[in-house]
Amino acid sequence: MIRINENYLDLQDSYLFSTIAKKVSKYSKENPNKKIIKLGIGDVSLPLAPIVIKAIHSATDEMAKKETFRGYGPEQGYDFLREKIVEYDYKTKGIKIQKDEIFVSDGAKCDTGNIVEIFSNDNIIAITDPVYPVYLDSNVMAGRAGKYDTTINKYEKIVYMQAVAENNFSPELPNKKVDMIYLCLPNNPTGTVLTKDELSKWVQYAKENKSIILFDSAYEAFIREENIPHSIYEIEGAKEVAIEFKSFSKTAGFTGVRCAYTVIPKQLKAYTKEGKEVNLNKLWNRRQCTKFNGVPYITQRAAEAIYSCEGQIQIKENIDYYLENARIIRQGLKNAGYSVYGGKNAPYIWLKVPKKYTSWEFFDYLLEKANIVGTPGVGFGPSGEGYFRLTAFASRENTIEAMERIKNI
Ligand code: PLP
Questions:
Q1: What is the per-residue pLDDT across 354-369, written as a single tens digit (0 to 9) for each?
Q2: Residues of the chain with pLDDT under 50
Q3: pLDDT score, position 13
């Protein structure tokens, strides 16, 4: 009898985006003349930078010729891209990362989801609350979460680290020993960041407790303020305790192209039951070589193109565009009397909903009164209740119009 991985039955159905879609569809059918502005999704809207398109065309032409055609590439990524990453994403920040510590992949979602495979199921997991749901669900699938308690909307074995306005979205260190800590900075969904000092506390904790930090910096390119680390490896000692995940999705509009990378420093160790040290770089390399056949050559040439001078200018222009949208949203919401967080070093704006509403009620209110779609905070975890996420990825025109509408409700 074929049996399933029953951990999958412990997953909670994610109603968030499907419920939003249903509500929006129902509203549009009933109100066909209303123009709905979508500030809910976390996908980019601007086209790829011209230099990226040029690189895609030229790599495609190479594939057309016998002499330059490429088949399977290295599972870890081509040297031309890994060398650029080492040079521009790390060396310029004074961080020494070696080429073979970089693993190019087809997405930070896959990597943050797949990485759990190389760790023991006995590990205790700590996530922030609210959280990017992949970290939680991939551990539920692996059987590390325990049973779901519907009275508090939490899994019994997961340590939830509350990130709310009261603690400035900077969670307390866990009050019990945890093994795997997920940090996403700049944060999705709250849009907030930690300073170097704040992040140092986590590195220190991980060192003292022999734990590992899984650091998702998918939104690093949005950081504009000083003293906000662009990489966890800016913190001394982090190479011994952290894996870093980076993505070209939001940095360069690659959500549909698919390219990302994961850094596993060679100093990073985890332990067997008997306490023997094991090199995680080797373990992940073994995993990737077994289950992954590399990112397409054309895609990697496209990613490489962003590291040219022109490329850097062009991708910055796109990010500046989104950040200006974020500023407009922050300002518009503040003028309308809302408490607003994030949106300065991230494309996400997190707002406190008026006390009389739950975050779903506020969703309905905004849809009906202003024809604006956002994301209810509770969809990202129980501590997201009472909050709401708007994104800066819409067009400038729609962003301005949305704020006008909120002003006039
Ligand atoms: N990590 C975070 C925090 C995200 O918000 C997202 C996408 O929304 C991803 C990773 C996914 O990245 P990728 O497109 O590289 O899979």
A1: 999 999 999 999 999 9
A2: none
A3: 81
- Is any atom of ligand 1 closer than 6 Å to the C-beta of 253? no
pLDDT in tens, 263-303: 999 999 999 999 999 999 999 999 999 999 999 999 999 99
> 105 CB under 6 A from ligand 1?
no
Q: What does the pLDDT read at residue 18?
A: 87
CA separation for the pair 192, 397 (Å, rounded): 25
Give the CATH class of 6-47+310-408.
Answer: alpha beta
CA distances from 315 to 38, 143, 282, 326, 391 (A): 23, 40, 33, 17, 18
Query: What are the angstrom distances between the C-alpha of 290 and each of 100, 139, 173, 204, 286?
Result: 17, 21, 36, 34, 6
Q: Is the CB of 42 under 6 A from ligand 1?
A: yes
* Ligand 1 centre distance from Cα of residue 108 (Å): 5
How far, in Å, from the CA of 409 to the mean position of ligand 1? 33
55-308, CATH topology level? Aspartate Aminotransferase; domain 2 (3.40.640)
| Atom 5 of ligand 1: nearest residue by CA position | 188
Domain residues of the chain, as ranges? Answer: 6-47+310-408, 55-308
Q: What residues contact 269, with CB distance under 8 A and at least 6 apart?
A: 240, 277, 278, 279, 280
